[in-house]
UniProtKB/TrEMBL annotation:
One GO MF term attached to the UniProt entry: metal ion binding
Domain Probable transposase IS891/IS1136/IS1341: 216-320
InterPro entries: Cas12f1-like_TNB, Transposase, Transposase_put_HTH
Name of the protein described by the UniProt record: Transposase
A biological process term (GO) from this entry: DNA recombination
Keywords: DNA recombination, DNA-binding, Metal-binding, Transposition, Zinc
Compositional bias ranges of the Basic and acidic residues kind: 251-265
Organism: Crocosphaera subtropica (strain ATCC 51142 / BH68) (Cyanothece sp. (strain ATCC 51142))
Length: 471
């Protein structure tokens, strides 16, 4: 397990004309007075966060309406200006006059809290840059607001094993690795976790040239990877790695702690201590999983320069089953009881975090490449002869009439590599079309699938589609 004293997060952002940005995380060792002050800041920021979020919800419910209609069935609220980011930031001046205890908090920290409100509400109403909307923002309960943000901090704030924060003074921290030469501190985040306080320093270096990865995938320098629950990764070179199941290993201990905690009185000291033990156990499980993911990513990148992985949407795979109703209106069994265990295994494996975050980050850092391919049908065809071999989810072995016999996940790994390389493949597949019009062969690539249709009346008809990939 990764030691909590050495736990750190590093993120690299590089592009054409963009500086290198890295984040280092260290363990803070504040004294008793500093801990009390940090806890006080978090509680005040939490209360103001909830107030500003409620103000936005209130305006949205009372003032929004369709452009061609008027809310006649309800009372019309007195019109007022929309509480957007800059208007709420200007309200901090009045806040300090009405509540003088907020003067103890640095102005930049308060402004960062307003920015968090604006970001949460904007993602709910408008969505992110890709148009994906988040869920409705929730009010922060006690101990749910855990981060204090300093958007700007002095470049020379770090002095040996101490770091200086505005209005907090010098705080001791464990510098388990030195700051890289040439980087300047741009931002700092103080976070309260289950086992103590941590600081995340955002560093920037504009002199480092941008990193560009230009590798052409070939048969020799590429590797196909299939991800699942039986084998966490099954590679095209026939190597497999089973998931360690860290949560399942600690599930009994976690159940006993939670049962013991629930038997204690609400608000009691004993219940609070047991809550802390439960949180530390969850933190240990998460760190074990993350450490294992990083080690596995290094092993995979040592094998090849280009990794082909599936473009999976784990949120869809772990979605609840739709309810079933009978003719009399009663609900029928829909298999959700068994599906809940499968969803727990998905969360325990952490496939999404590995494929979307850790593996691409380690590849970019090593100057290598991760390419995502469409996963549709990669387990239904034979990787050798490309015949259609129907399988159920419970069928874990692939057998084909051509003589190919291997684990189902290994067959998928080989096929993922072929799809990623864009090799022209011959496919004999089942089709609902008539005998007069059947696909003869197709050309697969990362972005498109081209069918060549042969009919009796027309010679060859070509068309392309991105959603018709059957491999």
């Amino acid at each position: 397990m990764l030691s909590p004293l050495l736990f750190c997060v590093t993120v690299i952002i590089a592009g054409r004309g963009k500086p290198i940005i890295v984040s280092y995380q260290y363990r803070l060792k504040p004294n008793y007075e500093q801990r009390c002050r940090l806890n006080s800041w978090l509680e005040k920021l939490r209360c103001q966060y909830n107030y500003l979020l409620a103000d936005r919800f209130d305006w949205w419910e009372n003032n929004r309406t369709y452009i061609d209609s008027c809310p006649l069935i309800c009372s019309i609220a007195e019109p007022r200006e929309q509480p957007e980011y800059y208007r709420q930031k200007r309200s901090l001046v009045q806040l300090k006059q009405e509540r003088p205890w907020y003067k103890d908090i640095h102005a930049h920290v308060l402004q960062d809290m307003v920015k968090r409100v604006d970001l949460a509400f904007s993602r709910y109403i408008k969505g992110d840059k890709n148009g994906k909307r988040s869920g409705k923002p929730r009010f922060k309960g006690k101990n749910r607001y855990r981060t204090i943000g300093f958007p700007s901090i002095k470049a020379d704030c770090v002095n040996n094993n101490r770091i200086t924060f505005p209005k907090l003074g010098e705080i001791k921290f464990i510098q388990h690795r030195p700051l890289p030469d040439g980087f300047t501190v741009k931002r700092a985040l103080i976070t309260k976790k289950a086992d103590g306080w941590y600081v995340t320093l955002t560093l920037e270096d504009k002199s480092v040239p941008s990193l560009t990865v230009d590798i052409q995938p070939t048969e020799e320098n590429s590797l196909g990877i299939d991800s699942g629950l039986e084998f966490f990764v099954a590679c095209s070179d026939s190597t497999t790695v089973k998931p360690p199941k860290f949560y399942r290993q600690s599930e009994d201990k976690l159940t006993k702690l939670q049962s013991k905690r629930d038997s204690r009185k609400l608000g009691s000291k004993a219940r609070r201590k047991l809550n802390q033990k439960v949180a530390k156990l969850h933190q240990k499980i998460a760190r074990q999983r993350q450490q294992w993911h990083y080690e596995l990513a290094n092993q995979l990148l040592d094998k090849a320069d280009v990794l082909f992985v599936e473009n999976l949407k784990i949120s869809n795979m772990s979605r609840r089953n739709k309810p079933k109703q009978g003719e009399d209106g009663t609900f029928l069994p829909n298999g959700q009881s068994a599906k809940s265990g499968l969803n727990k295994s998905f969360a325990d494996a952490g496939i999404s975090g590995f494929l979307n975050e850790i593996l691409p980050y380690k590849a970019a850092k090593a100057g290598k490449k991760v390419v995502k391919v469409n996963p549709k049908g990669t387990s239904r065809y034979c990787a050798i002869c490309l015949n259609y071999v129907p399988k159920e989810l419970s069928d874990r072995w692939h057998s084909c009439d051509c003589g190919a016999s291997m684990a189902r996940d290994i067959n998928s790994g080989i096929l993922i590599k072929k799809v990623g390389l864009g090799v022209r493949l011959t496919i004999k597949r089942k089709s609902s079309r008539s005998e007069e019009e059947k696909p003869a062969f197709c050309c697969l690539s990362n972005e498109r699938l081209e069918y060549v249709m042969r009919t009796e009346d027309q010679g060859e008809v070509r068309f392309s589609t991105a959603s018709a990939i059957m491999l």
